[in-house]
Amino acid sequence: MSFAQDPVRVALDAAVRAPSPHNSQPWRFEVDGDRIGVFLDPDRILKVADPDGREARLACGAAVLNVRLALRAAGRTPVVHLLPRRDVPEHLATVWARGRVTPTPDDVALARAIAYRRSNRRAFTAREVPVWVRQALVRAATEEGAHLAVVGRSGQLDELGVLLREAERLQREDLAFQDELRQWTASDGARDDGVPASAAGAGPEWPFDRKPMVAVLSSYTDTRLAQLRAGQALQRVLLRATTAGVSVSFLSQPVEIPALRAAVARLVSAPGNPQVVLRFGYGFAAPATRRRPAEAVTRYTVHG
Ligand SMILES: Cc1cc2nc3c(=O)[nH]c(=O)nc-3n(C[C@H](O)[C@H](O)[C@H](O)COP(=O)(O)O)c2cc1C
Questions:
Q1: Torsions phi, psi of 226, nearest 5?
Q2: Most exposed among 13, 79, 158, 260, judged by the fewest C-beta atoms under 10 Å?
Q3: pLDDT at 208
Q4: Which parts of the sequence belong to the Nitroreductase domain (predicted)?
C-alpha cells in the first residue's frame, strides 16, 4: 500500500481489508470529492449467525477505523460523522479527508499493519503475551470508547471454555447455521469473499494453547452507534496486536447466541455488552484472505 497516492483511494483500499464475519465484507462506499460514505450492504448480513446485523456493523466500524488511519498516514485529517442520516439506516458513516496533518510514527505503524493483519486460527506457541502488550491492547480499546477485559483467572477461562463448547454444540446442531457456514467457506481461489480452507485452524479445541490470552471486547450500550464504535475499537486492538507481532483469532460463537452472550457478560463483569471474544498469542504466519477490490464496492459521484 503506497501512501503517495490519492488519499481517498488509499483509504478505500484500506477499508476493504477490514475483518468481517465469514469474510462477508458487508460494506459499500460512495465517494464525492473528499467525502467517503460508508454503507452497510444488507444483502451480506449473515441471516442465521447475525440476524440483527450486529457483527456486520462491527465489521463496518473496523472499515471506518481503517479509513481514518489511512487518511492520517496520507497526511489528511479525517473528520468522522457516525450515523449521519436517521432516514437511511444503512448509511453508517461519512468520513471527510480534510486539512493537512503530519502523521505520528504510531499512526503510520498502525496504518501499515492494515495490510498484514490476519485472523490466525492456528494453534499458538506457549509464549505468553507480555504485560506491556496486554496493557497496550486494553488502552487501544479504551481510546475508541470500548472496553477490553482480559479473562484473567484460570477458573474464568475454564468457564468461558464451557460457554464456547456449548455455543459450538448448538451451532453444529443448527442446520441453517451449518448451511450458511458452507455457503461462505469457499474452495480456494474461486472467489474474492468467504473463508478459504487454507485459512482454517485447529478446529474447535479448547484450550488451544497452554497459556492463551483471551479477552472480551464490550461496549457500554448496544445501540447501532455503540456497535460502530466497538468495531473501530476492535480494529484498533487487532492492529495494535499486529504491530507487536501478536496473532489474534476470534471466538465469536458464545456472543452469537443471546443466552450465552449474557453469560459472557456476567463472567467478565465488564460493562454491559460483549461484542467479540478474542484469543491472542504467538502463532505461525497465516495466509491472507481475498477481498472484493475497492473499485468493485465504490460508487463515485460525477459532477457534470
Ligand atoms: C465480528 C466478527 C466476528 C468474527 N467471528 C469469527 C469466528 O467466530 N471465528 C473465526 O474463525 N473467525 C471469525 N471472524 C474472522 C473472519 O472470519 C475474518 O475476519 C475474515 O475471514 C477475513 O480474514 P482476515 O481477518 O484474516 O482478514 C470474525 C470477524 C468479525 C469482524
A1: -65, -35
A2: 158
A3: 52
A4: 114-282
Give the three cell numbers for residue 72: 492520517
Torsion of CA 186, 192, 198, 204, to 10 degrees: -60
**Location of C-alpha cell 463515485:** 300
CA nearest to 61, candidates 219, 281, 246: 219
Q: Taking Cα atoms as reference points, which of 5, 30, 9, 34 lies closest to residue 97?
A: 34
**CA angle, 47 as apex, 43 and 48 as ends, to 5°?**
160
Instruction: Inform me whether the pLDDT recorded for 274 exceeds 50.
Output: yes
Cis peptide before 130 (omega within 30 of 0): no
> Measured between alpha carbons, how far is 149 from 61 in angstroms, rounded to an integer?
20
Burial class (CB in 10 A: 0-12, 13-18, 19+), 154: exposed
Closest by CA position to 136, among listed 103, 168, 109: 109
Lowest-pLDDT range, 18-32, 43-57, 172-186, 203-217?
A: 203-217
User: 120 alpha carbon to ligand 1 midpoint, in Å?
Assistant: 9
Check: CB of residue 280 under 8 Å from CB of residue 241: yes
Ligand 1 pocket list (CB less than 6 A): 19-23, 55, 58-59, 118-119, 121, 195, 249-250, 252-253, 276, 289
Domains contained in the chain, CATH given: 7-118 (3.40.109.10), 131-281 (3.40.109.10)
Query: CA 230 to CA 247: how far, in whole Å?
Result: 20
Best mutation site among 20, 228, 290 for ligand 1 pocket (most ligand atoms within 8 Å of CB): 20
Q: Give the tens place of pLDDT for each residue, 88-121.
A: 999 999 999 999 999 999 999 999 999 999 999 9
